[in-house]
Design a protein that fits this description.
The complex is a heterodimer. Chain A is an alpha+beta fold. Chain A is about 30% helix and about 20% strand. Chain A has a five-stranded antiparallel sheet. In chain A, strands 9-10-11-12 form a four-stranded antiparallel sheet, sandwiched between helices. In chain A, strands 1-3-2 form a three-stranded parallel sheet, with helices on one face. In chain A, a hairpin with a 6-residue loop joins β11 and β12. In chain B, about 30% of the residues lie in helices and about 10% in strands. Chain B is built from seven helices and five strands, in the order ααββαβββαααα. Chain B has a five-stranded mixed sheet with strand order 2-1-5-3-4, sandwiched between helices. Classes of the chains: A alpha+beta, B alpha+beta.
Amino acid sequence: MRPFVYEQPTDISAAVAIASRFTTEDDQPTRANAQFIAGGTNLADYMKLGVAEPNRLVDLNRLKDPGLRQIRVTDEGIRFGALVRMGEAADHAELKRGYPVIADSLRLAASGQIRNMASLAGNVLQRTRCEYFRETSWHCNKRVPGSGCAAMEGFNRQHAVLGGSDACIATYHGDFAQALIALDAVVRAEGSRGARKIPLAKLHRQPRDTPEIETDLAADEIITAIEVPAVPWARRSLYLKIRDRESYAFALASAAVALDLDGDNVREARIALGGVATVPWRAKAAEEALQGKTLDEPSAGAAADAAFAGAEPRQHNAFKIELGKRTLVRALLETRDMKV
Amino acid sequence: MSQPSVPSTLGLSRRNFMTGTVSAAAAPLLVSSAKAEAPAAAGAELREPVVTSMRINKQAYELSLDTRTSLLDALRDHVGLTGTKKGCDHGQCGACTVLVDGKRVLSCLSFAVMNAGKDVTTVEGLASSDGKLHPMQQAFIDHDAFQCGYCTPGQILSAIGCINEGHAKSEDDIRDYMSGNICRCAAYPNIVAAVLQARDQMKGA
């Protein structure tokens, strides 16, 4: 591992100032010399592997602002402090009651230990688990721009069928972000150029021909909060995750679903898909396919077909299209049948 | 397990480095205060050890560490507490689980310097001073909840954390919330039985 200087600022502006001093405007946050660390479950792992090579770590855990560690659920919606740990949010009573899709997405992610460590903002920013990205001896356009992609002709069973490019098909493996994007979440960020709000749907970048650019963030920007506007009918919501084993595994396919129903008639549907795409994936075509329809197996199937209409399979991951569709159909019908 | 590699950028061997820092009573090395440096010339700064204070099993320690040292390596190589095991060293197996401020975490994915001021509990800190085992340790013996024993310290610490979190209400609950601890000998049914027994005893305690 590359040696690093360890910094522990106590307020956000000081943290931004350190990062600002040791990075440039063109630096990607994941490739900059100075990088932020919170839970460390993702970054420490990638530093050990030589995938991430900061020479300065700015520890955010000493920041004093109490809002960074609070979850507030009000009539306006939810505000998650960026440093809240996954486990705390997964067990939050009001979230479980009012927004089960969010609580489920966190409960079904990672392990008990990792949920105690990982921060919510860090979770949203977690990097892909693509085997060819993780191991530095393989060619990887995300890790070494322009070096090629070993996954294209490699063992790509885990890889994305939606949102890929000729340069990269690495899957976004997070769960929480699928629930957030379905509910129109926004992140608040602070950097040397001020504070701003970024819709979660614009935070992650599809790979296109620059897979090394993973997010819209600058290298000196810190996510301070994640906000979800109130969705009173999100009580009828769930996160369904399908994987190789029942617990502690990344999704092969997942679906975040929230439904506003009038009887079995869909007033509004919110749908996001995980395990199948390069970024958190809002399935608007599926939502539109359901609007005003009676939700039953045929209409859910038509929505699933719409969701995967643009899917591009490779040699080993074509199964994800059928699995993803069935996952969404099951999630829709189970959400319809929830007693709320 | 293989020895961790010697940090090549330190000017002293890891063994000498450890000898100087292994004692809990070791005088703190003075870290030079922040100095003005050009962003490009951080070389000397990078080689400064960082003094980190933490409580480990209720005893205060002051450790002088390379910032890259994981909490796991600090415990094993610098403090000499080898009960905490290194399995995968990448957060996938749970063998390195310890409690930090009462919560179960993976010591391999935590830089030791990030734990300054924290309370760390390892398997060596569970038994009472009179030698009486923690109910979870006794339950693992009672139920033969291991074969080779390598994952056991991590299983025990994780199980205590799991119960304290309120996630050991049923066998299914235990299997799910303990899934971050892999047992290559597959002693899982006995581990679940041990956790159930200890759960009830810990409630009564």
